[in-house]
Amino acid sequence: xxxxxxxxxxxxxxxxxxxxxxxxxxxxxxxxxxxxxxxxxxxxxxxxxxxxxxxxxxxxxxxxxxxxxxxxxxxxxxxxxxxxxxxxxxxxxxxxxxxxxxxxxxxxxxxxxxxxxxxxxxxxxxxxxxxxxxxxxxxxxxxxxxxxxxxxxxxxxxxxxxxxxxxxxxxxxxxxxxxxxxxxxxxxxxxxxxxxxxxxxxxxxxxxxxxxxxxxxxxxxxxxxxxxxxxxxxxxxxxxxxxxxxxxxxxxxxxxxxxxxxxxxxxxxxxxxxxxxxxxxxxxxxxxxxxxxxxxxxxxxxxxxxxxxxxxxxxxxxxxxxxxxxxxxxxxxxxxxxxxxxxxxxxxxxxxxxxxxxxxxxxxxxxxxxxxxxxxxxxxxxxxxxxxxxxxxxxxxxxxxxxxxxxxxxxxxxxxxxxxxxxxxxxxxxxxxxxxxxxxxxxxxxxxxxxxxxxxxxxxxxxxxxxxxxxxxxxxxxxxxxxxxxxxxxxxxxxxxxxxxxxxxxxxxxxxxxxxxxxxxxxxxxxxxxxxxxxxxxxxxxxxxxxxxxxxxxxxxxxx
RNA sequence: CGGGGAGUAGCGCAGUCUGGUAGCGCACCCGGCUGGGGGCCGGGCGGUCGCAGGUUCAAAUCCUGUCUCCCCGACCA
Length: 560
What we know:
alpha+beta, 31 strands, globular, RNA-binding
């Protein structure tokens, strides 16, 4: 029985003063969530129904690919995390029990699940295996924000696959691709599966499931047939007009001009006709000079991946000592390896001369300096890929899938014996999905001026039934009866029988955003009809009194 | 971690500069009217002004410290 007069659905006329993101404002206003502290949220009844609907979709798809649901604890011994090498992570909540033993609050469960598998799995006959759970995750985020989009505590579905070899892992990974594609579709989201950075975990491949929306914290580079996180995206740069070639570099005086823009405007050239030099220092004080087109920027994640090692930008003193005056450095004559971005096409460029107040023009890569080609440029909108134009959109990361390899099986001793009796490491994958983010993404993607407009599959209720009649009226009696019929047909119905004005009821209903709003009032009843509003698009239609429930159910089945 | 902002009733805010009995709108409670887009009239309830200390005859207001929250950036297995 879900009668609004007794249901805990505290709606608000005003959004929280400091809320910025649309989903944050609307989910609070609609009475779905309430804040407890920074990045800590309570899910109220209607909000929790949405969350649970997403969870059920995810559960069904995981089961469909052979996943087996388990439950692992949030509180875990620090020892496991020391063994896996993750104890030092700053986001990890750390605490002690009464005996002083170090504990952690899990941000994911690789350590625990791998330990169980290591203990139980002995033979190749026990593999492959897919285990998953829905469990609270704890992360000491430096900056929680935007309602439930980025929180310190949240529920995540995390699954883990265990295979004999890379081929097995690949097969399980592809199964997850299928399952995740379906989860995103079934949640009614617009989404992209994008190539992702494997990050510090050093896995062998990763994709993210991104839901584009203005509040998204990630940027996705998209072109027909291509989608990648900008952190790893590659594309052809837009062409640039270069100077005529010269037989050899010529010095040009550029006093006081230490920026690309200043030199470009002095020589009346586009910034892209210059070379930008980005000196970096690797572990052990080795220097490298990264060179890219003047109008391009370094993507530090791509650079780190290209180097295969961490780096830092060189300090000005190091630049002055090893190359030349900062603002005037360039690749010609540089006494260090040069990494040339592949966005620099052949031709004559203007570059720093490694001496005060001077640049060189007519510098040609290959002729005037040797280099190693790398791809370290940040892509920008307008770049080309497969002949199409690239665009960049903000998006929410709802899920990610990741090939771990033997990252955890090695330190935690997860081995098996193969057919010939040899001990082998288990190959693992891990896969995350955030129901709260899926819900927030749906709010972001479909909300309008009036409020939320849920996809049918994850709405808190299928139908909101509004009666305008007072207790004892003919309309009220009919609405009571219709409520029962809708429930019998399997439609989850929220019945607004509050003693409130029609305006208030309509506004609350559209704020909450159930796919259908059914109104029983004297006016339409007099005409033998019941009014039905389709929330998305707000189009109104009507059904006959006599078989209203069946017609409403049929309408509902046709909704997105 | 750097920069900016805010803590006064459930929500949104004024009052702080210039110290002098804590206010407004909405919500809520009671009564009545109204009944297809946050309706109207009348009467009410509700706040240790984030916390601690200090100055003062007197502190929401001035001073010191502290906690919390938000936004931008950095960060984001």
